[in-house]
Amino acid sequence: MAHAIRFHETGGPEVLQWEEVAVGKPGPGQVRLRHEAVGLNFADTYFRSGLYPVPLPAGMGVEAAGVVQALGEGVDSVRVGDRVTYTGFVNTLGAYSTERLAPAAALIRLPGDIECATAAAMTMRGLTASYLMRRIHAFKAGDSVLLHAAAGGVGLIVSQWARLLGVTVIGTVSSEAKAELARAHGCAHVIDYSREDVAKRVRELTDGAGVDVVFDSVGKDTFDASLDSLKRRGLMVCVGTASGPVPPFNPQLLAMKGSLYLTRPALADYIADPAEKHELASELFGHVASGRIRIEINQRYALQDAAQAHRDLESRKTTGSSIFVV
């Protein structure tokens, strides 16, 4: 019998329940998957808490990798036995499961040299890093970026990718252990935000100029410091709200701080076009397969331990990527 983590009400990690589920046969455009590994992402907590509302009861998780078991009518993009990975949003909710039905359109076939565990740890994070480095800004050698949560899953990939492009990364972390991890993955400078003034330190490191781009996945707690770290006409990229949503503000603030640009992108809009998704995934997989980018799986959990995994994630005890082993 298949099992899945589901929740019947929104709230804290305690609402996550381990349940038997009936999977059934795939319908038109669907496949039946047997998961080998499932990704743990901060966005999962938004569904659980109700920040991202979905009809209840609901499954949990939007990223996993496994093997195709059966095909629904009209599916010709994959075959039974193919190893695949996927990520998405509401259309792939339910990844915390041993088996499931999934839309074939969401699937990405895995190259032979990418394991399912690696894929589950990097598909969402890696595609996020891919569009940040290849679509948001035309990075060139000599550019600089302030990267919050530099020791996190996305942060470690972005740092390595930036180093490949000759971009200087200033990362923020909360401990010396995380600082060492960030440096090892490409951060030229690391700021401990728990004891340093981030914007002031950025100005010192850039001879007063500020950075070209900020990647801010923290949100409310770092927004002001991020704006104050940018050079004139710099780009602020809000990519997450780990500390809560950014409060409303007058856009005139952007002019006052140097005619700044601000964007709030979402991965879904960069992988909606199958051709663009393939391009972003192919470059990502190429970097990982060659060893140019390393994927750090620093936490592994059983699916039954999803509540503890969420507690660890929200208390910032994790580094790199986290997965559930099925």
Tell me what you see in this structure.
- The chain has 326 residues and is an alpha/beta fold.
- It folds into 2 domains: 2-122 and 272-325, Medium-chain alcohol dehydrogenases, catalytic domain (Quinone Oxidoreductase, Chain A, domain 1), CATH 3.90.180; 141-264, NAD(P)-binding Rossmann-like Domain (Rossmann fold), CATH 3.40.50.
- The chain has 9 helices and 16 strands.
- Strands 3, 5, 6, 7, 8, 15 and 16 form a 7-stranded mixed beta sheet that branches. A 6-stranded parallel beta sheet has the order 11-10-9-12-13-14, sandwiched between helices. A 3-stranded antiparallel beta sheet has the order 2-1-4, with no helix packed on it.
- Helix 7 links the parallel strand 13 (230-238) and strand 14 (261-263).
- The longest helix has 21 residues, at 116-136.
- The radius of gyration is 20 Å and the shape is globular.
- GO terms for molecular function: mRNA 3'-UTR AU-rich region binding; NADPH binding; quinone reductase (NADPH) activity; zinc ion binding.
